[in-house]
Amino acid sequence: MASMIESAWTYLITNFSDFQLACLGSFFLHESVFFLSGLPFILLERAGWLSKYKIQTKNNSPAAQEKCITRLLLYHFCVNLPLMMASYPVFRLMGMRSTLPLPSWKVISTQVFFYFILEDFVFYWGHRILHTKWLYKHVHSVHHEYATPFGLTSEYAHPAEILFLGFATIVGPAITGPHLITLWLWMVLRVLETVEAHCGYHFPWSLSNFLPLYGGADFHDYHHRLLYTKSGNYSSTFVYMDWLFGTDKGYRRLKELKNDACEIEGKEM
């Protein structure tokens, strides 16, 4: 397996420049993972498949879904891609490389774990600030246009928010100067996580059922359903910041009430 990855990587660095891989390659990888993981949830919602796992009963109209996709393509090409290109010199300065040898899995996993923890911390405070009155009204309300989120709404946001919260995603790699393959893995995992958090479905196989402190769709869907001043649940991937600062109390209370209701219903049956 390792030799296959190394052979594929050798092909990439032989045929493409560092800039092409770091900017255009990263952009292509992001778009592929994002849309391939997010579009199926539009299909599920339109077809009504697996509806028993849908968190909210309300569906988005096809027009609303199409608006989201159109805006996303505009933002990705006009904001994300230029940002990737502009940040390339910074990452190079901080030590990012694409050459062989590839880093060990121990190094990769350690760095990615660090990125998740740091991103959660930075994202929490940035997200919480965006829920102050002025910033919510003028910036963050764009993201909350979809009270019933679906996978692709995860990146539907005001350009200023893309830059603001995007910092949380890149600060870890900017500090450590990782190998490009580590950066790509981090990007893929982060995209899959945020799409899942906005997918609108809570499945028996959802990661939040098995991984402690993992937020997931049910956790973040609660955030979208409530008024901006009362929502809480500001965390990104892991919810330790909400737990520490008590901003998930409403959500935890709701879960307790639901569990109590299920227990009573089970006893009556």
Automatic annotation (TrEMBL):
Major subcellular location class = membrane
A Gene Ontology biological process noted in the UniProt record is: sterol biosynthetic process
> Keywords of this protein's UniProt record, alphabetized?
Membrane, Monooxygenase, Oxidoreductase, Transmembrane, Transmembrane helix
Could you give one GO CC term from the UniProt record? endoplasmic reticulum membrane
What is the annotated localization of this protein?
A: Membrane
Q: Which family does it belong to?
A: Belongs to the sterol desaturase family.
Its recorded name reads Methylsterol monooxygenase 2-2
Taxonomic classification:
Eukaryota, Viridiplantae, Streptophyta, Embryophyta, Tracheophyta
